[in-house]
Amino acid sequence: LSLHDALPILSIFEEYAKANNKSLSELIREIIIEHIEDEYDKKIFDEYEDDKRQGKLKIYSHEEVWKELGL
């Protein structure tokens, strides 16, 4: 990405930051953190789905949980 290509995007970010009473650096930091959190959540979910598919998990119904807890 060249600087010339980034200028229109930067302008959009600046306008969005201003409209939301944030600095540009604060907005970019929030976007990056959100993206990292989303990727992490997807990774954890994918691992869970893989473990479930491979039969590595024991899944309990709510009735089984209540019984186990004596409720």
Summed over residues and divided by their number, the pLDDT gives a mean of 92
SSE pattern, N- to C-terminal: HHH
**Poorly predicted runs:** none
Rg, Å, rounded: 22 Å
Find the count of extended strands (DSSP E, 2+ residues): 0
Percent of residues in helices: over 70%
State which percent range the strand residues make up.
under 5%
**In DSSP terms, counting alpha (H) and pi (I) runs of 4 or more, how many helices?**
3
Oligomer: single chain
Largest sheet: none
Distance between the termini: 59 Å
Q: How does the overall form come out from the CA principal axes?
A: elongated
- Find the structural class using helix and strand composition: mainly alpha
Show the helix and strand layout.
Blueprint: H1 3-19, H2 24-53, H3 62-69
Helix pairs in contact: 1-2
Descriptive key words:
single chain, 71 residues, mainly alpha, elongated
Structural overview:
With about 70 residues, this protein is an all-alpha fold. Helix content is about 75%, strand content about 0%.
